[in-house]
Amino acid sequence: MSLEQIAVREVIEDYLDQGWQVGDPRAAQDVVGFLPDVVLRKGDRHLVIEVGQVGGLPRRSVSALRRAVEQHPDWRFEVKLVPSDAPAATDRVAVEEIRDRLDLADRLIADGHGDDALLLAWVAVEANLRRMLADDRDSAPGTLLRRAYDEDRISDRELRHLTDWRGLTNRIVHGFRTDTDAAKASALLGLARDLSDRAEPRAAWTVGPA
Questions:
Q1: Which one of 49, 121, 134, 155 is separated from 95 by 20 to 30 angstroms, measured CA to CA?
Q2: Which InterPro entries is this protein grouped with (predicted)?
Q3: Model pTM greater than 0.70?
């Protein structure tokens, strides 16, 4: 799977979390005059997204695409850029670094910085899921959660909590405050530490309570 394909899937998952629905690019082509990578709709609003590598989309082309889309009322155009190279194995977060980030998240909670702690805890969750599933395809976070659940690595309850927390971290990343309290941040931190234990190679492990 190419970086662009991974990015398209991640974009779609992020916007589905925000209440958008996936549209038909071929139907949109009749409106905007080109075949978009992603088309999303929410009520009367439409969002067209082009995904490309850094430096791979000429500014002149982007401007032309934006004009073609935004000449229509309630239609908006965005570009999502991805790195030109796939991350190497050495770019993965190491086990020691995961533990360091969780320790830092503990201190942030104690200092009243719940949102910052939540982000660090989520980084650890995602890194542990990749280790646990031996994921080498740079799968989107939503895909990691579904795989972990389908393979009985996480329980129903954990899937629900992780899905909710992923929505919170998306809001933080996009510039919104969640005012995450210490109890909620600590709960995610505890689950992140539990996933660290489960990600360690061992003969048997136990899924959390359903």
A1: 155
A2: AHJR-like
A3: no
